[in-house]
Amino acid sequence: MKIAILGATGPTGQALLKRALDAGHNVVALVRNPDGISTKHDNLQVEKTDISKEDTMVPALENCDVVMSCLGARGTFMKEVQLYSSSTRVIVSAMRKTNVKRFLCLTSWGLKHGEPRFVSWLLRSLFLKTIYADMARMEDYLESECQDINYTVVRPPSLSNGNSTEKQIQAREGQYVSNGGWSIPRTDVARFMLSCLDTDKWERKKVAISV
Domain NAD(P)-binding, which positions (predicted)? Predict the structure, then answer.
């Protein structure tokens, strides 16, 4: 399978890139700065793109089977975040022009209704409020305006570094996994994203995951 990955220079994107290559997929890394990709592989193609400009993305998506976005932003109290919603509109437009139908992206647990533990939800709402707001806009856009796109929104809890647990990943539609852990290694997030390519179970759904 030929996979286009956005955010491949970030920690989660790097984990997804490595796991996809190890699984034998062909990967196109769409990046702002190609020098940020140190991985060398016969199945890896690195393309310089601008996520705000559709015309730079269209050539890179030709003949791809799926687009996976691990784009992430840093939130502030004062500045509105628009990365998630604005980039997704550009990505979807480029997908439509290249006839790519499958799209996976990341948001977070408790995006709209809060997490089950009030203190955790309050702290995250305070420090990540602008990020959560834009993630919600992205989800709303996919649900309301992308009936032709076969999307999966993956909602992990807090992300950690380190090796994959290789445990069975718990997944359910909704805001969180009630009996799941409160953090998940990025490598396990990458593992779940790739597993979605082998099933139609999570197509056009927003799924919370945990280990």
Answer: 7-199
